[in-house]
Design goal:
The protein is 35% helix and 14% strand. The protein has 17 helices and 15 strands. Helix 2 links the parallel strand 2 and strand 3. It binds iron/sulfur cluster. Iron/sulfur cluster binds next to helix 5.
């Protein structure tokens, strides 16, 4: 279903679901439910309502802010979870809603938030989220699709966000494990289909319907046969295809790759450098040298591509003003060494993500000034700096680190203004009980202070809103990775 069209749902459906990959899309769930006349609160749904379920990386990492609106959350890979889930729904078709939910909650990777009760101390500290029935699991473990056969688009349409493009997932997860990266940590292990084990077939299938091909993945050039795939796409029979790839790993580039990409219609290349400071790249485990970055820029130009997009961040843990100056210096040097190449620097603010080693870190308030500083340094040098809004990054952090006490705030924002000011006002209003929202069917204490959720560095003994949900790496190991990272700064 396309959310921007007035498509009506068949009210007799059994299931209504959405997948979320971006925190700031979360409130759309409420709009979708309202549009379909489905009660937004899970607790108020009746036997005639569909089971409302969600999945995708945002909900797998921390579904708690949306928990009161969802009947079921699928933690992990859809290929693994959906068949079990749908078969169970079919088998339980004639059972009551309550019985269905209880049975679903016993299936590995299926989380039914209404059957788990958060407990808080008198000062609002989360003490745990526990099952309300003794025969339900104490914690729920994310499920992993243990196969190298990955997804590709089944719908190619001009109505899509990327129109008429056939997208093929070339890799899932990323073995690099940059300490902030949910795309790596949450989805491990790294998987890649071999060319002869479905990848070529998936590409051919799409190219019979469209000439636009997108190769997707957290870092597509990590695919062990990436050069072979490009060489195959370089055959004359594919002369009219237009190829796009997502972010590439700088160290895996050479001019042969960039030439094929240019020949197949790519105009630009995207590389995430995160920081121009080699010290900070070490802290975050980004195994990328300055020489590799300069070479990547050189190959981009040599290959005939017009634009190099570099992604970076401000506000990373341990970052100092010197690191920001190092970023500015590196970008200016790249520009100097590759004249004529359009350099874009996409800048975002570090946001702590659940299930990563930096989940205990906060958003750093210096980030705002550091974005301004980079603007001032880079614009006059002809570097096209495109910074994400610092303010919206703080809202992202609110989603990424809150528990279900955020639900009334989400509702209040939906009923008024989805602006930065609207979020702050709604949060304050819910905390101080001065905001009029629809009656909330569940008892929720007021949310913790705004600063504590967004900016604080959390103590490692803190019970996290997602402690009852297990990702691929245990909390203990995430802590060790954080420790290794932060110690790099002292060496
Ligand atoms: S290389 Fe990119 S995708 Fe891989 S872990 Fe680092 S940031 Fe994530």
């Amino acid at each position: 279903m396309f959310t921007d069209t007035a498509e009506r749902l068949d009210r007799t459906c059994d299931l209504f679901g959405l997948s979320l990959s971006w925190e700031l899309d979360s409130p759309i769930l409420l709009d979708l439910l309202k549009k379909q006349n489905i009660n937004i609160w899970s607790d108020l749904r009746t036997e005639n309502d569909p089971i409302v379920f969600g999945g995708g990386p945002v909900l797998t990492a921390n579904p708690e802010p949306l928990a009161p609106f969802l009947d079921v959350v699928l933690l992990g890979d859809g290929e693994e979870l959906l068949p079990n889930f749908i078969n169970s729904i079919k088998q339980l078709k004639d059972e009551s809603r309550a019985y269905k939910l209880k049975m679903l909650a016993k299936i590995p990777g299926i989380y039914v938030p209404s059957l788990y009760q958060p407990e808080y101390s008198s000062d609002g500290t989360l003490l745990g989220v526990n099952p309300i029935f003794t025969d339900l699991p104490q914690s729920i473990t994310k499920q992993t699709w243990n196969s190298n056969i990955l997804g590709h688009s089944t719908v190619i349409t001009p109505e899509a966000a990327w129109p008429n493009i056939h997208m093929v997932e070339v890799v899932r997860s990323c073995p690099e494990m940059c300490r902030f990266c949910m795309a790596s940590y949450l989805t491990l292990p790294f998987r890649s289909p071999s060319l002869n084990d479905g990848l070529i077939q998936a590409v051919e299938k799409g190219l019979s319907a469209t000439n636009r091909l997108g190769l997707l993945g957290a870092s597509v050039t990590q695919h062990p046969e990436f050069l072979e795939l490009l060489t195959w796409l370089n055959q004359d029979q594919f002369n009219d295809i237009q190829l796009s790839i997502s972010s590439v790993r700088a160290s895996s580039l050479n001019s042969r790759i960039t030439k094929i990409l240019a020949k197949r219609g790519s105009k630009s290349l995207t590389i995430a450098i995160e920081s121009g400071s080699s010290k900070l790249r070490q802290v975050i485990n980004k195994k990328l040298s300055e020489d590799e970055i300069f070479s990547a820029a050189k190959y981009t130009k040599e290959g005939g591509l017009k634009k190099l997009k570099l992604y970076g961040m401000v506000g990373l843990p341990t970052e100092s003003d010197d690191d920001i100056e190092a970023s500015a210096k590196l970008l200016i040097e790249i520009k100097k060494r590759t004249p004529g190449l359009h350099i874009v620097f996409g800048l975002s603010t570090f946001v702590p993500k659940a299930q990563t080693p930096f989940q205990w870190q906060g958003v750093r308030q210096e980030s705002k000034q550091r974005i301004k500083f980079l603007h001032k340094m880079l614009k006059p040098k002809g570097i096209d700096l495109r910074a994400e809004s610092y303010g919206w990054s703080t809202i992202q952090a609110l989603f990424s680190r809150s528990d279900r006490r955020l639900a009334p705030v989400i509702l209040a924002v939906r009923n008024s203004q989805n602006t930065l000011g609207g979020w702050k006002k709604a949060y304050k209003g819910v905390r101080e009980d001065t905001i009029q929202t629809e009656k909330i069917p569940i008892l929720l204490p007021k949310p913790p202070p705004w600063d504590e959720v967004i900016y604080s560095v959390w103590n490692e003994t803190k019970i996290l809103p997602w402690t009852h949900l297990n990702g691929p790496i245990s909390e203990l190991n995430l802590l060790k990775h954080q420790e290794i990272a932060l110690n790099q700064n002292n060496e």
